[in-house]
Design a protein that fits this description.
The protein is of the alpha/beta class and 499 residues long. The protein is built from 16 helices and 22 strands.
């Protein structure tokens, strides 16, 4: 089953303002000023659709992080921020949302150039960024305390206060979305922020920072450090002046951040890897399941932590489902992210390209049957065909390790208990899905799955009002919804003697 491909990337219609933006190497944002890295070093951002340089960013390191922490600490305690009313914070977040919406197409194009996602997808992502700031704008005036029952003559109440300086480290698969999920609730609750985007995708976060500053934040409240994980990221995780660190990325790096945080016992939230089971029962609507499950492992070229990378299929419908899944894969168009016909772009980098394609040999060597894909495209850029392995056992490496590319595995199961056993036999627990026409089976299975999000007869749906995060080694804490506010506030109990 061949995946449709487009000709080699052609020159896309890029906004002239973006061309000017890319032509200048971009600086760090510290204390309201755009400054060079103290080392003077820069690094290139590579367009994964062409393999060519898109632009350059400053390579911040520990010295720059220290300056940003000092600025964020001053801003945290300055009256312009600490004394700002929650009503004004609401208006400020709404202004941020408005300026982002005004520049939505520009941000979407830069994100596509940065990480290779189709422009149709990055446009949706930017719309989600706007919605995130609007949603958390509403929370700024609703950070309530409580009055507790107390003994006679005693008043006991609680207040919620900002955690403090928050270091936010975001990934390359959805830089703008991840930044919004972390920055918006942090600002809504009165914290100050140091944002570090992944070194593969610094450009869209830089432009986002410019727009955030246009909205009128006091200096030092929001800072941006571009650079490498082993330098700038590690410095954020270990810095004693940072009160909370939030990270989205691999489980391996998440463990390092957790270890580094012990110096001052930082508050930590981690949104990490996954190997999500997608369970297809024998009574499922196979057409709907195949269509949505195809998107489940091909969206963003499979570079999503909730990818449907383990498809557990009842043995009686295994072959029929596999055929429909293969047909769905064949409809994907790989090509220029700026082409409206493109449904799937490249993976983000040569490093990721090599990692994903290596698993083709791993799967074959373990005895899995290659049904579709298993090859790269012979063209510039880092394009990989959607790949399906069948006859997979749950103890195979391709079923246990997070590949983070457009690769899925089909694992047969006998009955409900067998499906749940296989589904939960993993170190991860980020997401899962159940496909069945029997509501009792659906809800019973959802209860037994060890995952932070369970979809029933759908896949990939999220909502800003619903918390997102994982069980086991898929993370600590939750983002989105009111639950994310817990990560950005401290609860103080106050006792007042009235006698």
């Amino acid at each position: 089953m061949a995946t449709r491909t487009e000709p080699a990337p052609k020159l896309a219609e890029i906004d002239p303002g973006i061309t000017r933006f890319l032509a200048q190497h971009r600086k760090l944002l510290i204390d309201g000023e755009w400054v060079e890295a103290q080392s003077g070093k820069t690094f290139a951002s590579i367009n994964p659709a062409t393999g060519k340089v898109s632009g350059h960013a400053a390579a911040g390191d520990a010295a720059d992080v220290d300056l940003a922490v000092r600025a964020a600490r001053r801003a945290l305690e300055h009256h312009s921020w600490a004394g700002m009313s929650p009503h004004e914070r609401t208006r400020l977040l709404l202004r941020i949302a408005n300026v982002i919406e005004t520049h939505a197409e520009e941000l979407a194009q830069i994100e596509s150039l940065d990480n290779g996602s189709p422009l149709t997808i990055t446009r949706m992502a930017v719309a989600g960024v706007v919605d995130t700031f609007v949603y958390y704008a509403g929370w700024a005036t609703k950070i309530y305390g409580e009055t507790n029952p107390a003994m006679p003559g005693m008043l006991n109440y609680t207040v919620r206060e900002p955690v403090g300086v928050c270091g936010q480290i975001v990934p390359w698969n959805g830089p703008l979305t991840a930044a919004a999920w972390k920055v918006a609730p942090a600002l809504a609750t009165g914290n100050t922020v140091i944002l570090k985007p992944a070194e593969q995708t610094p450009l869209s976060s830089i432009r986002l920072a410019e727009l955030i500053m246009e909205a009128g934040l006091p200096k030092g409240v929001f800072n941006l450090i571009t650079g490498f994980g082993e330098t700038a990221g590690a410095a954020i995780a270990a810095h004693p002046g940072i009160d909370k660190v939030g990270f989205t990325g691999s489980t391996e790096v998440g463990k390092k951040i957790l270890t580094a945080s012990t110096g001052n016992l930082k508050r930590v939230t981690l949104e990490l890897g996954g190997k999500s089971p997608n369970i297809i029962f024998k009574d499922a609507d196979l057409d709907a399941a195949a269509a949505r499950s195809t998107m489940g492992f091909c969206f963003l070229s499979g570079q999503i932590c909730v990818a449907a990378s383990r498809m557990l299929v009842h043995e009686s419908v295994h072959d029929a489902f596999a055929e429909k899944l293969g047909a769905g894969v064949a409809t994907h168009v790989l090509g220029d992210p700026f082409d409206a016909a493109t449904t799937m772009g490249p993976v983000v980098s040569k490093e990721q390209f090599d990692r994903v394609t290596h698993y083709f040999d791993v799967g074959r060597d373990d005895g899995a049957r290659l049904m579709a894909g298993g090859a790269a495209l012979d063209r510039p850029g880092f394009f990989i065909k959607p790949t399906i392995f069948a006859a997979v056992r749950n103890d195979m490496r391709i079923a246990r390790e997070e590949i983070f590319g457009p690769v899925t595995t089909l694992i047969p199961f006998r009955d409900e208990d067998d499906a749940i056993r296989i589904a939960n036999d993993t170190q991860f627990g980020l997401a899962a899905a159940v496909w069945t026409r029997d509501l009792a089976t659906a809800h019973r299975t959802a209860r037994k799955l060890k995952a932070g999000t369970v979809w029933i007869n759908t896949y990939l749906h999220t909502d800003l009002m619903s918390p997102f995060g994982g069980y086991k080694q898929s993370g600590i804490g939750r983002e989105l919804g009111r639950q994310s506010l817990d990560a950005f506030t401290e609860v103080k109990s106050v006792f007042a003697n009235l006698d």
